[in-house]
Amino acid sequence: RIDVDQNVPQGQPRVITYRGTRRTVDFAKKLVHMLCQENASETDLPLGEAKREFLIVPASSVGKIIGRGGEMIRELQARSQAKIQVDHNSHNGMDQQKHVTMTGTPQAVTKAKEMILFLVANPLMD
After folding, report:
1. CA distance linking residue 107 with residue 93, whole number of Å
2. Pick from 65, 51, 52: which is nearest to 97 by CA?
3. pLDDT single digits (tens) 101-110
4. How far apart are CA 68 and CA 66, in angstroms?
5. Is 113 in contact with 77 (CB distance < 8 Å)?
6. Where are the alpha helices (DSSP H) in the chain?
7. How far apart are CA 54 and CA 72, in angstroms?
8. How many Cβ atoms sit within 10 Å of the Cβ of residue 84?
9. What is the pLDDT of residues 33-47, one digit of tens each?
10. Whether 112 contacts 80, CB under 8 Å
């Protein structure tokens, strides 16, 4: 687990706290170091023990997944413990469909996928 203290003035260094086994803490430090490099991208990072899975959902369901002010996606992330990202760009002319990326432990990704599919399939969840 990586916690970053956000309660510091703008432009000041942040305090990072790592928790876990020696192996996972070392891996987390490596990831943070990689992210601090110029032109670093989160998508370039190794997953370690995490898993990444993609879903294609109807574009009309994106609002349901994100929720008002991002409330639903934050709740989905908190309940599943997976990171969930919705790609708002069109791919290969697929304006009617959007990509959702879920990253986390295999259990977290499975739970996130189930919850998202439930939202998409249930029209009463608007």
Report:
1. 32
2. 65
3. 999 888 999 9
4. 7
5. no
6. 22-35, 62-66, 71-80, 106-121
7. 18
8. 24
9. 887 777 777 666 666
10. yes
